[in-house]
Design goal:
single chain, mainly beta, Leucine-rich repeat, LRR (right-handed beta-alpha superhelix), 3 domains, 18-stranded mixed beta sheet, five-stranded parallel beta sheet, 27 strands, binds 2-acetamido-2-deoxy-beta-D-glucopyranose, Leucine-rich repeat-containing N-terminal plant-type domain-containing protein, PGIP, Leu-rich_rpt
């Protein structure tokens, strides 16, 4: 049992030696706290273990704060419960442990008028617990966090606009279904909205989030939301992270997204953004560091939008039905790439020689395309990336004799080394210099050169 942990006892004894000249917790909050603790775990005799003022000798997970009534003389202080965290996290934060019968005692929780943070971690895993109505909760509540509570079920009930101080609303891994709570769009203090891995659903296209000016994180991943992405998302000018992966969103990514000036992380993977191509608006979102669009059947060729995206570290474009060549500009501009996934598309032509100069790259997945020609990597590059250089499923790709000794490249066929320039089809219109098998050939404007070996 967690209560016998040495840290727990140490805190207890320390706190009980504190001076008692401080204000005491009101009997309403004291009694409500016992009731909340009993609703979380009735196997523990809370009243016996903690007979004194619960702000002097409190279980881990209970935080109190002192308040001075402004304008009043000394001694006019009060103490209130400001944070409650339930569900054992670790030996260093042994919150009151939940059990299979844990419940949420809404009336008792509503007694804490200064409550700023309420957290339930792996708390509701047995008996079904309905989503509480949040209306009665403290108007100063800043953090409402539910993590891994599979038995928290049902739809949201009641309007939550009264939680006007709410900054973090986190609901991860629950059985909550239906639409988002009414009044959510009014919470203008909100900085983080993470509703990941629940059973939420509904058409989001008409949503207006224009009041959520302070939102930094919006994560609706792994739910059943669908519809077009709302134009109003583009007004979230503080947004740093947008994760909408694993839903049923479709249509084009609105041009209004260029208003997401600070966005660093964008994950739209595994939705139904079908046949609309790689969104060009990405090219204007210059703070991006991670972009994941895999599993959408976007179709089309990879556009030339990379010039201002040098901050990108991770780019996922797998399983998108992409056709055509891989633009060399990706290797030129995406200098900080650590991860690039272009696997399971229909890409053709050579791997751009510029990819061989990507110094930061630690995973490059080009599997299952129709790429051809000699791979542009040297021995140093290959040994650095090892098994994370993924090239299988490209039957026309070949490798030089010296590189083929590497275990990870044994599956590739050997390039035939011609004495004269080998068969290359070049169609290009700019003035460019192409190195073909160490022979430099200048090609002038506007024609294709067909060199026969
Ligand atoms: C969203 O609501 C605001 C007012 O709250 C309004 O000015 C704006 O036009 C709306 N945006 C959209 C896209 O409906
Ligand atoms: C490529 O296709 C093969 C056969 O369909 C599959 O087993 C493999 O997982 C695919 N590679 C990737 C990276 O998905």
């Amino acid at each position: 049992m967690h209560l016998s942990h040495p840290l727990f006892l140490l805190t207890l004894s320390l706190l009980s030696t504190l001076s008692t000249s401080q204000p005491s917790l009101s009997s309403l909050e004291q009694e409500s706290l016992y009731q909340v603790l009993e609703s979380i775990n009735s196997d523990i005799s809370w009243r016996t273990l903690f007979p004194d003022d619960l702000c002097y000798s409190s279980p881990h997970g209970v935080v109190c704060e002192y308040f001075t009534i402004s304008g009043a003389g000394a001694g006019d202080e009060s103490v209130h419960v400001t944070e409650l965290s339930f569900g054992f996290v670790s030996d260093y934060s042994p919150n009151p442990p939940c059990n299979r019968h844990s419940k949420i005692n809404v009336p008792a929780l509503s007694a804490f008028k200064e409550l700023k943070k309420l957290l339930f971690y792996k708390c509701f895993t047995g008996d079904e617990v309905p989503v509480p109505e949040f209306e009665g909760f403290s108007g100063v509540l800043e953090e409402l966090v539910f993590i891994e509570n599979p038995s928290l079920v049902g739809p949201f009930k009641g309007d939550i606009r009264s939680l006007s101080s709410l900054k973090r609303f986190v609901l991860i891994g629950s059985g909550v279904y239906g639409w988002v709570p009414p009044g959510l769009g009014e919470l203008s203090s909100l900085e983080q909205l993470t509703f990941s891995r629940n059973r939420l659903s509904g058409d989001i296209s008409g949503v207006n989030v224009s009041k959520l000016r302070n939102l930094k994180v919006l994560d609706l991943s792994y739910n059943g939301f669908f519809g077009n992405l709302p134009e109003s998302f583009g007004g979230l000018e503080s947004l740093l992270k947008l994760d909408l992966s694993y839903n049923g969103f479709h249509g084009e990514v609105p041009m209004s997204f260029k208003g997401l000036r600070k966005l660093e992380f964008l994950d739209l993977s595994y939705n139904r953004f079908f046949n609309c191509g790689v969104p060009l608006v990405l090219g204007e979102m210059t703070c991006l560091t991670e972009v994941y669009l895999s599993g959408n059947d976007l179709g089309g060729e990879i556009p030339e939008i990379w010039e201002n995206l040098g901050g990108i570290l991770g780019l996922g474009l797998s399983r998108n039905g992409l056709i055509g060549h891989i633009p060399g500009s990706m290797g030129v501009f995406l200098k900080n790439l650590c991860y690039l996934g272009l696997d399971n598309n229909k890409l053709q032509g050579e791997v751009p020689s510029e990819f061989g100069t990507l110094e930061m790259v630690s995973e490059l997945n080009l599997e299952n395309n129709s790429l051809s020609g000699e791979i542009p990597f040297d021995a140093k590059f290959v040994s650095k990336i090892g098994g994370k250089l993924k090239l299988k499923g490209n039957s026309q790709l070949c490798v030089d004799q010296e590189l083929r000794v590497d275990d990870h490249l044994k599956h590739l066929k050997l390039c035939k080394k011609p004495e004269v320039p080998r068969l290359v089809l070049l169609h290009d219109s700019g003035s460019l210099v192409v190195l073909v098998s160490r022979v430099a050939i200048a090609i002038s404007w506007g024609f294709s050169l067909f060199l026969i070996s």
